[in-house]
TrEMBL record:
Necessary cofactors: Mg(2+)
Designated name of the protein: Succinate--CoA ligase [ADP-forming] subunit beta
Known catalytic reactions: succinate + ATP + CoA = succinyl-CoA + ADP + phosphate; GTP + succinate + CoA = succinyl-CoA + GDP + phosphate
UniProt xrefs under InterPro entries: ATP-grasp (IPR011761), ATP-grasp_succ-CoA_synth-type (IPR013650), ATP_grasp_subdomain_1 (IPR013815), Succ-CoA_synthase_bsu_CS (IPR017866), SUCC_ACL_C (IPR005811), Succ_CoA_ligase-like_bsu (IPR005809), Succinyl-CoA_synth-like (IPR016102)
Keywords per UniProt: ATP-binding, Ligase, Magnesium, Metal-binding, Nucleotide-binding, Tricarboxylic acid cycle
Residues annotated to bind substrate: N280, G337, I338, V339
Gene that produces this protein: sucC
SUBUNIT field: Heterotetramer of two alpha and two beta subunits.
NCBIfam families hit by this protein: PRK00696.1, sucCoAbeta
Amino acid sequence: MNIHEYQGKEILKKYGVTIQRGIVADTPDSAIQAAKELQAETGTKWFVVKSQIHAGGRGKGKVKETGSHGVVLAKSITEVPDKVKAILGGTLVTHQTGPEGKKVNKVLIAEDVYYPGESEPKEYYMSILLDRSKACPVIMASTEGGMNIEEVAETHPEKIIKEWIDPAIGLQAFQARKIAFALGWEGNAFKEGVKFIGSLYNAYLGLDASMFEINPVLKTSDNRILAVDAKVNLDDNALYRHKDLAELRDITEEDPLEVEAGKAGLNYVKLDGNVGCMVNGAGLAMATMDIIKLSGGEPANFLDVGGGANAETVEAGFRIILKDPNVKAILINIFGGIVRCDRVANGVVEAYKKIGDIHVPIIVRLQGTNAEEGAKIIEQSGLKVFSAIVLKDAAQRVKEVLA
């Protein structure tokens, strides 16, 4: 589960991570009030207006309606309303949102931390995530903060610092110092940096997070280390331990079909293709998507109905897939292990009749327990549903209906 920058920063603050302070607002008037409160608290004279969407690249992204960038600077309180109006309610397009962009419902009014001083402010990159190949968390850092880390990894891999953490003993003090040394921090920045890394790792564990990305981490002109941004991804499977964090979910930032599928207990991810697929089992779903591509189509979604597929789940899956206007055909691929194929076939027929007026061809491939009985039910239904037993036949059917 993704959360907004302002939510991530507030959580990190509770774990002792130093952050760029800010106050969230959803109207120009509340933004002015936020700026006044922030000035009274921090003494800042300039304010950073930051769009709050679940996507990176906001600073380079632009609002369709106004041409404003997603992160802008207001050099006085009087400038704040106009800066906010140019962003709030608009559609922000970044390299991560795609051309359709995302609507900005909130902005963060943040303090200016790039003030002049004894040295130039410098940006760094830092993240913590699970390295599945080594079965342990890894801290990644770089002196090239504020940039696309994928580009840095491709062009200057030597600038990516990695430190793997043994989960049995946790982050050791020498490891935090090692990262701080590698980033070139000295004096007070070094001390604050070591503390920053330790607090960040404690937050990662405490939240059951799947990823933290702080880009940039800033060394200020007076050698403080703080998080200017915070991308926090929480593990959905651990939210039962964090009821307060589950409440931070913003469904307006998620695909409506994925939200609907979640309520129906389905694992659904929308894609850009033309063939909807409904499968029981994640591995089989991946294989089905491959076979769709080999047949000349493109998968329109990933949809796993689970091992206990029945008429209700099949109907819910149908309804969700059919709401995608790009879908030109549906491939149902069920392996009858826990669930019998004849039961699934009856569910498909019932769902088809209940939904009615389905204009796209449906290919049903059943294999496993009572597969032959299931195929007969499909063939004798009189509906525009094509049956297949082996995956090759299903792929050929897809190819035929797309021709």
